[in-house]
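FAQ: What does a ligand-bound record look like?

Like this one, built around calcium ion:
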Amino acid sequence: MRILLVEDDTMLGESLQRGLTQSGHAVDWLRDGDSADSAVRAQQFDMVLLDLGLPKQDGLAVLKQMRRRNNAVPVIILTAREALPDRVAGLDSGADDYLIKPFALDELEARMRSVERRHTGTIASVLQYGELTLNPITHEVRHRDELVVLSAREYQILHALMRRPGAIISRANVEEQVYSWDQEIDSNAIEVHIHRLRQKLNSTMIRTVRGLGYQLVAE
Ligand code: CA
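The answer part, i.e. the structure of the complex:
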């Protein structure tokens, strides 16, 4: 998932960016409300993790403006403000969930998966399409019940495709979902990963739609 992390606490920001990156997400980390506001206008994220007490602009104000512009990206508020009115205001302003600091990374990731399931309307935690399954908790991928060992990038790309099976996803969109701003992308990197994915899956499920992008189709 492409994640925007908005957190002004350096230690917490660093540890969240590191932990979520290790879990296979592309994480962009910003430290104030104004740059978060610009980022969500310029870029499509899969999820926003939003602190409330931020320099320049409060997290709640950023959230309200996003929702006013009909930006429906899932938002989880991360904050030390445990007071009930703040929690209620956050949820009423359009947050999808709320996590009180300090929290464990495991709980944050479980909540992210739960919010994503609700957002995409899927009930099962394991994604399935045709004979392909992907487990976002264990990162296990199976094709026809055979375990498929993928690199972190290959997994991220397959996850991006399996989140929207049947849809044509442009190469730029795939890049956005698997690379953060500070990661270099070779111009043919995605094609190379897709090529290996096809070999490892030994399947024709990933189609290239010339000039448009990639599409996960039934075998
Ligand atoms: Ca803060």
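Follow-up question: can I read anything off the structure? Yes, for example: The chain has two domains: 2-120, 127-216.
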